[in-house]
Amino acid sequence: MENKKSIKNFLNKKSIMISIVIILVIISGTMAVKHFTDGKENVKFEIIENQQIPKKLKDILPRYQTLERALACKVDDEVYVVVTRGEKPTGGYTVDIEKIEKIKEDGKFRLVVHAKFTDPKQGDAVTQGITYPYVVAKTNLTELPYRIELKTEYED
C-alpha cells in the first residue's frame, strides 16, 4: 500500500516537473521569437497602376519625382508608400518595392522600404528623353510612420 503511495507521489512530482519544463519552453520560445524579430512586422501592400493613384497623391508627386527617396502619404484613410528614383536621362529605368517593414519603437513606428532599382542594359532600346521612374503601393496601414527609410538594391 505504501509502495503505491510512493509511486503516486513520484508520478505526481514527475507530472509537475514535466509541466514546468513545458511552460518554460513555451515562455522561452515566445521570448526568442520576440527577440529575433526586433519588433519588425511585414506590411501588406499592393502596387497600384497610374490610373488608380488618387488625385491628391498625383498632385504632390512632382515635388518629389526629382529625388531618390521613399515617402508615405495618407489619402482618404488609406496609406500609400511611394518610391521615386529621381531624374534619369532615358527610359528603361525601373523601381519596384520588394518588401515594407514596420518597426515598432517607443509607442510609434517607422517604415523600412526595400526597393529594387533596375537600369537599362547596354544596347537596350529605350525612349530618348528624361524620365522620372517611381512606384506607388497601397498598404494595409491605418496611420503614418514617424520616419521612413529607403533601402535599395540594384539589379544587374
Plain-language structure description:
The relative contact order is 0.19. Helices cover 29% and strands 43% of the residues. The protein has a 4-stranded mixed sheet, with no helix packed on it. Strands 2-9-4-3 form a 4-stranded antiparallel sheet, covered by helices on one side. Strands 5-8 form a two-stranded antiparallel ribbon. With 156 residues, it is an alpha+beta fold. The protein is built from 2 helices and 10 strands; from the N terminus they run H-E-E-H-E-E-E-E-E-E-E-E. A hairpin with a 2-residue loop joins strand 6 (94-105) and strand 7. It has 2 domains: 2-37; 41-155, no CATH class.
How many strands appear in the DSSP assignment?
10
Order of helices and strands: HEEHEEEEEEEE
The N- and C-terminal alpha carbons lie at a distance of 80 Å
- Secondary structure class reads alpha+beta
Q: What is the C-alpha radius of gyration, as a whole number of Å? A: 26 Å
3D shape: elongated
Q: Give a short account of the largest sheet.
A: 4 strands, mixed
Spatial strand arrangement across the major sheet: 1-6-7-10
Average pLDDT metric: 87
As residue ranges, the low-confidence spans are: none
The portion of residues assigned to helices is: 25-40%
Organism: Caminicella sporogenes DSM 14501
Protein name: PrcB C-terminal
Pfam family, one: PrcB_C
Domain PrcB C-terminal: 80-139
